[in-house]
Amino acid sequence: MPPWDYRTSTTGYYDRHAAEFCGNTFTVDVSALYVPFLREIPEGGAILDAGCGSGRDSLAFLRRGYRVVSLDASREMVAAATKHTGQQTLLLTFDEIDFTDEFDGIWACGSLVHVARRDLHSVFTRFSRALKPNGVIYLSFK
Fold this sequence. Notes:
The chain is of the alpha/beta class. It has helices at about 5-15, 20-25, 30-40, 55-65, 75-85, 120-130; strands at about 45-50, 65-70, 90, 105-110, 130-140. The chain has a single domain, classed as 3-Layer(aba) Sandwich (Rossmann fold). The protein contains six helices and five strands. The chain has a five-stranded parallel β-sheet with strand order 3-2-1-4-5.
């Protein structure tokens, strides 16, 4: 694997450590982070959980009445999120996102740390295209 192939190394890590990752993160309470984001999303609005991991945040949004599309690049994280949310999670990388004007908000909590700086512009372009007019994006980084 070439050293620049961060996609393979990242998905490989999460595929191998999915149970441990879910155990360490699924019950972490980040609900305070939801408040400013959800304030901008219409009731019942559509949210893209980009890099959803275990599905913790997707489940929280679903329980609050939002329509959620969850995606992750790791097969094992997709399986975990599908199990936790009760709905199919998409196996997609950020560079495969191909939605247009579909979401009131995009939630990318801790997932963009896995994208090389040189690729961020392309990801942000895809996010922007996926948002409805006046949509909002939540991004967090370490």
